[in-house]
Amino acid sequence: MPVTAENFRDLALSLPEAIESSHMGHVDFRCQGKIFATLGYPNEGYGVLKLTPEQQQPLLKDSPATFAPCAGVWGQRGATSVRLASAKAGAMRPLLEIARRNLDSKPPKNKPA
Asked: What is the mean pLDDT of residues 34-48?
């Protein structure tokens, strides 16, 4: 069964502390103010997972029709585009969980006063 935008949203929001927000005209999913996934980028048929490069590589190798690095430095840092129509629903929740857990391992960004 392919993933729909609504499935992606429901799965993301089912994770602990996840909320829906938006930036730059796209829906995003956050925990404690930090984004772990985006929906509708680069267009409505896609989502983005904030993974590490090490987590991204097997997806690119095993499923290049579904997963691709995002453009530029974001993709080099692990941001991974997901073509929803070819993604497997059963695989999406574990990937969203990984993206969500990655937030826990990153220190908060220093904000200027």
From this structure: 94
